[in-house]
Description:
Layout: H1 8-31, E1 38-40, E2 47-49, H2 50-66, E3 71-74, E4 87-95, H3 97-102, E5 108-115, E6 118-126, E7 131-136, E8 141-143, E9 146-147, E10 160-162, H4 177-184, E11 189-191, H5 196-204, E12 210-214, H6 218-230, E13 234-236, E14 249-253, H7 258-265
Parallel strand pairs: 3-4, 10-11, 10-12
Antiparallel strand pairs: 1-2, 4-5, 5-6, 6-7, 7-8, 8-9, 12-14, 13-14
Helix pairs in contact: 1-2, 5-6
Amino acid sequence: MDRNRIAPQDEAVLxxxxxxAKGAGEIQRDRYExxxxxxxxxxxxxxxxxxDHACEELIVAAxxxxxxxxxxxxxxxxxxxxxxxxxxxxxxxxxxTTNYAHGFPRFCVSIGVEFRGKTQxxxxxxxxxxxxxxxxxxxxxxxxxxxxxxxxxSVFNQALIATGFAYDVHKxxxxxxxxxxxxxxxxxxxxxxxxxxxxxxxxxxGRLDAYWELKLHAWDVSAGSLxxxxxxxxxxxxxxxxxxxxxxxxxxxxxxxxxxxxSLVQDQ
Length: 268
């Protein structure tokens, strides 16, 4: 990324987001596959660990020190919303907590930053692979020094797709399973890896051709959605309209497969 072409205010936000993501990632590496405390939240499969809280405390403290007037929406509730602030940080301190708790190496830090209600900066950091995905609106998407571009796959039966399931999957009739079956029978492959932010970044990097999911939250999708779009991809809701920033439903793709994926994941 040519940092000289980024507005100074965006550059400052990007640098702080990267510093926060790498700091939290260091905590995750240090505590990975060690004895940690684990609790449940909304369901027995909705986990939170002491590492989630430690990462969030580090990120929130850094933001509040450098940018005390900014709003912060953080998954574990450590941030403070400020309705009159132009900037809002949307933080998932540990995306893929269930994976982390089981020692499954698929998790990350995700930080999206909105300016006046639109995502301006996105940073996702995979600490085990030391992969830093980032973007500033209008400046492309990057993995380290490599500019990202979505795949050129245009035939659905040659596509590798990802999805996920909500924490209420065991009790809700809206469980994504019928959609899963339709896509599974149409695509080359279908994955469920447990980290929405990384799935979005993999679409941006061309490792996945598309990804969809329901019942997400803003912190799951804020950074990754911007990274996909800046890599040339498409992000919508399940009918092809604008994807809500709150994350209730999301369909992302390289653009070439989007119409077909929409037809498969719409309510039928």
